[in-house]
């Protein structure tokens, strides 16, 4: 039987082995690369948006976007603000399924809700950019970027509501800035990267003691998150089964499962 100490050491060695193969397009490594790193975020967003004078003033990773009770929450991979107050959500989506049109719409709307307080005029909504970096070319047209905007179908004119969705083709390898950047996003070795900013940041997390520890901590946290999600999913199924088979109310089902009052909102939000 494996002891707790042996388990932790085994998991650490597995994390160190996994770290060697991590790339910027892997979401757990992306968290580390962009966390509190305004220069790198600004550099990447300038390339993806084509805004050479873009100045990022703030960036957060894993930003929680839930302000409506009962609404589905989302965590933005990298959430930046520029000096004009415009908002940028940069998402890594390796799975085609995770980059669906409705998900992009939801991310865009979540930023709207997060950026307008009671009493504010609708015209005060900032421009928002939802940017999905996909590992595959999900539109299969060979382009580097698919720029999505609303259009007035009657006039054929762009609607100009300040909401922008960009799909960046991670498989694109053209001889331009996006092609070079997408090449680097798929590299595990910083020596193979073209962008110095991304290479230096990758090297820090792979080759320095402080950087390695930071990545290992993120992987440990994600492992714990996965265990917690598994527990939540199992408990949700148990609640639903009790409600269906014994015709119990949700409160009665949670009473039967002895779920603490402090945890019940977690399950109520998902039912």
Please supply descriptive tags for the structure shown above.
271 residues; alpha/beta; 2 domains; six-stranded mixed beta sheet; two-stranded antiparallel sheet; 9 helices; globular
Rg from C-alpha positions? 21 Å
Q: Give average pLDDT, whole number.
A: 92
Major β-sheet annotation: 6 strands, mixed
Bulk shape: globular
Oligomerization category of the chains in this entry: single chain
Spell out the helices and strands N to C: HHHEEEHEEEEEHHHHH
**What is the end-to-end distance?**
38 Å
Low-confidence stretches: none
Strand line-up across the major sheet: 1-2-3-4-8-5
| Number of self-contained structural domains | 2
Q: Helical region count?
A: 9
Question: How would you describe this structure to a colleague?
Answer:
The structure is a single chain. By secondary structure, the protein is α/β, with parallel strands linked by helices. The protein has two domains: 4-207; 224-268. Helices cover 45% and strands 17% of the residues. The strands form two sheets. It has a six-stranded mixed sheet with strand order 1-2-3-4-8-5, sandwiched between helices. A two-stranded antiparallel ribbon has the order 6-7. A hairpin with a 4-residue loop joins strand 6 (151-152) and strand 7 (157-158). Helix 1 crosses helix 7 (209-245), helix 2 (27-34) packs across helix 7 (209-245) and helix 7 crosses helix 8 (250-256). The two termini are 38 Å apart. The model has no long low-confidence stretch (mean pLDDT 92).
